[in-house]
Amino acid sequence: MFDVIVIGGGVIGGLTLRELSKYNLNCALVEAQNDVAIGQSRANSGIVHAGYDAKEGSLKAKFNVLGNKMMPRVAKELGVKYRNNGSLVVAFTNEDLVTLQTLKARGETNGVEGLTILSKDELRAKEPNISDNALGALYAPTGGIICPYELTIASIGNAMDNGAKLYTNFKVSEIVKNQDGFTVVSEKGQALDCKVIINASGLSCDKIANMVGDYSFKMGARKGEYILLDKENSNFVSHTLFFTPTKAGKGILVTQTVDNNILLGPTSTEQADGSTVTSESGLAFVIQKVKEMVKNPPLFNTITSFAGVRAYCDRHDFIIEKSSACENFINLAGIESPGLTSAPAIAEYVVKELIGSLLPLEEKADFNPERAPDYFFKNLTNEEKTQLILKNPLYGKIVCRCEEITEGEIVRAIHENPPARDLDAVKRRTRASMGRCQGGFCQPRIVEILARELGVDMTEVTKSGEGSELVWGKTK
Ligand SMILES: Cc1cc2nc3c(=O)[nH]c(=O)nc-3n(C[C@H](O)[C@H](O)[C@H](O)COP(=O)(O)OP(=O)(O)OC[C@H]3O[C@@H](n4cnc5c(N)ncnc54)[C@H](O)[C@@H]3O)c2cc1C
After folding, report:
1. Residue 45 Cα: closest atom of ligand 1
2. Same domain, 121 and 196
3. Which residues line ligand 1 (CB under 6 A)?
4. For the whole model, what pTM was predicted?
């Protein structure tokens, strides 16, 4: 019998599991897919928002500002790259300039520090490639960037290192209430008992809540399409550039990523089926808006495009509460943007306040908050590289040439917590095949390594779980 089962291996479930693993509790996370960090936490903008967007007094405002303050420490403990690059909300009309004052006042009420309005010249001094039509900007020095799937994977890995269990390919299809709590049943018939459930299943939060008789909210899905540019242009912008928001949301942004690519997007279109297929019109809209924001964007250096799906709910704020249907079922629903930013603060609140009111919280004496980064070789000195290769010759073999990732790092990703079991899982942990060639050279090699390390035939290695096998048999 588990004390707590978390449903959903996104950043919210992941950081909550890590927080739970600080205490003497028997905890598990169940995830429908073959790996964690597959849902919204896989494909988003990766912005650690300052906190001037959300309405005063909302849960979004509260947890955004708290999460923004916690993020540098959490990222450092988990070996995840974070950069405090600051953000700029750019005005293009006189109406926008008035909105900037409103955002500044709202941010100050929310507790955001250091907000200033920049003149046209001050903005240009910070971002030389900004469009000549820009009139000024709101500068938020506390804005930052992080890799969302790296944070999710590292938090679940750290929780597992501290005793938590992970069940992948466990798609919850039924929850049975019983005397001691619940039996959580998967589509494949596996069953796990627990005292408390935390529902962090993103887009499925309403369906999972319905399983215990909670019909208090409904989820919807909105697609966001992106374009990613090569690292060659990493200095094209240094801050995160936003348009002045409208009722439709924050709009298209232009930003560096922590891995020094330039990210453009996202769009925002209703997508009832949750599909993440990009569209010609979506990407054309991104390009049009980016050209309005900056001069001569280096679009010729595009290396890929992708889409993510936002899970919003009809209550228009985060739902972070015990269910009205049963108090030992906690909903973490409608966690749309700024959910990534808010995640560390949500996790701490949920465990201390909500779990703390249901179960005794006794701190573990031996909790280890730290986790080593998943890829690191290229940042070592020559002397450090030599020492490592002498200890393990696999670090002497570069598999991904674009990102300079070694076989040692790939093998480590396959065996550490949470283990990488498919090609995309290796990619998300090590960046192997995320470079300019997008895996053209290294993917066959990674398939070989996965087959060898997992002790399976190459025909059994998948891209991202069952049904995505890559190799069908020998041709010669
Ligand atoms: C396009 C886009 C841009 C964004 N940009 C930002 C940003 O810049 N900054 C920011 O702060 N936030 C941003 N966000 C919001 C942020 O991504 C989310 O708030 C956050 O990722 C939500 O995490 P989650 O864990 O709640 O959900 P998810 O990451 O979606 O995780 C839910 C998990 O539950 C699993 N699951 C579903 N059903 C079941 C089931 N039946 N059984 C078991 N498991 C199940 C799913 O497979 C999934 O892995 C953005 C979101 C999107 C989509």
Report:
1. 8
2. no
3. 7-13, 30-33, 38-41, 44-47, 49, 171-172, 200-202, 204, 208, 224, 266, 308-311, 335-341
4. 0.97
